[in-house]
Amino acid sequence: MVKRTRFKFLFICSMVVGALLGSMITQVYLAQPADAATQKVDRLQGSDRYATAVAVSKAGYANGAEVAYLASGENYADALSAAPAAALAGGPLLLTRTKSLPASTAAELKRLKPKSVVIVGADGAVSGTVWNAVKKIVPNMKRVGGKDRFETSRLIVESMGATSGAAFIATGWDYPDALAASAAAGARKGFVVLVPGKDKKEPTAVRNLLTKRAVTDIVIAGGTSVVSSGIEASLKGIATVTRAGGGDRYGTAVAVNKASFDAAATRAFVATGSGYADALTGAALAGTLGAPLYTSRSSCIPDAAFADFASRLNVNQVTLLGGTGVLNNSVAQLKTCGSANDAATKKASEEALLKKLNALLPSLKGVHNVTVRELGGLKRTVSVRGGNRDEPASSIKIFALYGALKRIEQGKLYYSTKLPSGYTLAQCMRAMIHVSDNYCHTDLLQLMGNNNLNAQFASEGYTGTHYAGTWKGTYYSYKTSTTNDMTALLQRLYNGMLLNKSNSTYMISLLKEQIYRMSLPSGLPPGVVQASKPGELWISSGMVQTSAAIVYAPKGAYTLAIMGHNGSTDPSLAAISKLVYEHFNGAFSKTASFAVQQMVTAHSAKLRSSAGGSAIATIPAGAYAEVEAGVRLWYHVKVNGKTGYMSSADLKNRY
User: In what residue span(s) does the Beta-lactamase class A catalytic domain sit (predicted)?
Assistant: First the structure.
């Protein structure tokens, strides 16, 4: 273990630069560890990811640039391969919103005066509206985008000029490993190709691309859990292959840099390992300058990263990417984490939680599969039967919701798309989650196709989730999922890796708004925010109770999925939820309490005999209503001692 070092810290200056940079502040420090040469630490930041990209561009291209690359700031996939392409072309990588060009980005394009702009990604990533806005500034433009992130990655490489023969392979399903690889590829005048990492071998199109580019040296970023051993073995038939993987995302960045940089490197870039936006544009500049990029925790530098650039390399300048909200002043002082201690603490905590779950579960009614993933901190992960494929009840609707939003993002569907029922896609997505409406769920499945969804889930690494239909070449007459898959999807959603920012926000808002709170949420303290999707279904073996949630706990968010079978109950799920919460946050006495009447009438409204049928009563405003089911936008309720249907527009959430 590298010992924690003490530093003399000297604040030198701070500058506020132009409104167009969103009040960018550049801070310069001298960090002087006892056992290493003095390193100057500076920071490139802006008020948001777009302004930070501008700050990086100004730092690297003070006198303008011949070309500029422009990628979506709402998703990471396209920009991962674009960073080394921009470095090779000698221009910056800027970010844009999908549907509008930020003012700061527009101003930077005017300042740069490039002869051309390369738009990265298809219309679903960077819209025609953005294209038109850029064209008014720089008429000479081209778009490089494919049908998905993998084709876009290959097309970017095909569009590049002569490369060195160095290729970096990274999974396209996550960003951390590819961030360091993007900077390394740029520094070596190579490229990054994204692959479906869990496949047994690389796609034929990737093999053809590597052969066409006369690649001689391949570096795989990440361990076998993210890029399979089968892909590695297959690549060895093309060129020399080196796997650069670490125990976590921080260790992988160090391994990539060890495989790519020698003692000649005098500058290093550091970005958060918990987000992608700042590092995307920083990777392009790092590649241009021949500098490595390391990922860091928000409050301290991983020991291995510090040891690599402070001891193995001759780094005398460290540039932080992003503000103190992502890399705080302890990082600016190059304070290390003591990662060996972190690993031991993580392992002990995971073992303790697993022991608690194994003690609790046999005492509950039913049999339960459980997976927990901590979303920050030590990223503790625990699973009990988490890979078991079982009946997911209505919790599988998170996958249907994701499938619809992904198609909206791709331009294949729209929020306003009309369904055969006459309702819009937006209306049915909400009803499907808000009251777990099965009619809207069926509408969405018919719109997208079970087999299409199954193929999507399999290709994205969800190893146990499918609807009735063909899945991985076999027909199934029933649906299944796993708690591992559910928590993985919610983890990607929380981290902004599943959908773009606006669709991620929308999906989380629907999960927060759903009204059924009697299971997992009832195991949390009052006031703790959660975004969840429960399920309940009676089958021949007994009651199925499920729930998948993001829990926004005081000491850090986590995802929790529970699938209970053989007579599971709401109190069983609440007990599991309470145990997990207390493990991360400490014991508490009072749990949240929710009445069965989840909604209240927003105004005086009619109670009807059927969905849209004749009125049977007038219900006054403020009456508590128990929603039992939905028929799209008509909710079946018990209210004021009567049973019938009310329009969803006449009701509002009680909690």
Answer: 371-563
Q: Determine the Cα–Cα distance for residues 349 and 556; give it in Å rounded to an integer.
A: 15
* DSSP code of residue 590: P
| Residue with tokens 């990607």, as numbered in its chain | 492
CA dist 131 and 123 (Å) reads 9
pLDDT band at 286 (very low <50, low <70, confident <90, very high): very high
* Residue 301, strand partner residues: 336
Give the whole-angstrom CA distance, residue 627 versus residue 636. 6
Q: What is the predicted pLDDT for the residue at 430?
A: 98
Predicted confidence band of residue 18 (pLDDT cuts 50, 70, 90):
very low
Which residues are within 8 A (CB) of 141 and not within 5 positions of it... i.e. 6 or more apart? 116, 117, 118, 119, 131, 134, 135
CATH superfamily of 344-585: DD-peptidase/beta-lactamase superfamily (3.40.710.10)
The one-letter amino acid code at 164 reads: S
Supply the mean pLDDT for the chain. Answer: 90
- Cα 394 to Cα 594: distance, rounded to the nearest angstrom: 20
Contact partners, residue 213, CB within 8 Å, separation at least 6: 157, 163, 165, 167, 191
* 3-state secondary structure (DSSP) of residue 302: coil
For 525-538, what is the mean pLDDT?
96
Query: Looking at the DSSP assignment, which residues form a beta bridge with residue 644?
Result: 637
Burial class (CB in 10 A: 0-12, 13-18, 19+), 136: exposed
Instruction: Please tell me the predicted confidence (pLDDT) of residue 38.
Output: 66
Domain 599-653 homologous superfamily, CATH: SH3 Domains (2.30.30.40)
CA dist 585 and 577 (Å) reads 12
CA atoms 180, 186, 189, 195: torsion sign = positive
pTM higher than 0.70? no
Q: What end-to-end distance do the CA atoms of the chain give, in Å? A: 49
H helices present in 136-292, as ranges: 149-159, 176-187, 204-212, 229-235, 249-258, 277-289
Q: What residue ranges do the domains of the chain occupy?
A: 7-337, 344-585, 599-653
For residues 272 and 9, the model is more confident at 272
For residue 7, the cross-strand partners are: 33
Residues in the chain: 655
pLDDT-based confidence at residue 29 (cuts at 50, 70, 90): very low
Three-class SS of residue 149?
Answer: helix
Q: How far apart are CA 168 and CA 211, in angstroms?
A: 14
Task: Give the Cβ contact number of residue 239 at 10 Å.
Answer: 18
Under a CB-based contact definition with an 8 Å cutoff, are residues 406 and 596 in contact?
A: no
DSSP 596-610: S--EEESSSEEEESS
Distances (CA, A) of 264 to 39, 267, 289, 312: 15, 9, 12, 10
